[in-house]
Request: fold
Amino acid sequence: MTSPLKQARLSRGLTLEQVASAVDIDTGNLSRIERGAQVPSVARTARLAKFFAGAVTETQIVCPCKPA
Reply:
């Protein structure tokens, strides 16, 4: 299953590197967040949600397997 965060990234044709750079986080951390292997901080969650401007919610980022 692809997480909503990864779906938002792929639908915009962006790489992990591009998103990580835009929100100032490490590419490895972003990859783990997308896979649900790491829970992001509140600040990182907010930056990601803001970057994707409504395409993904903070709840979907923190809990990728649960419907929003």
In short: The two ends are 15 Å apart (CA to CA). Residues 59 and 68 are 7 Å apart (CA to CA). The chain has a mean pLDDT of 93. The chain is about 60% helix and 0% strand.
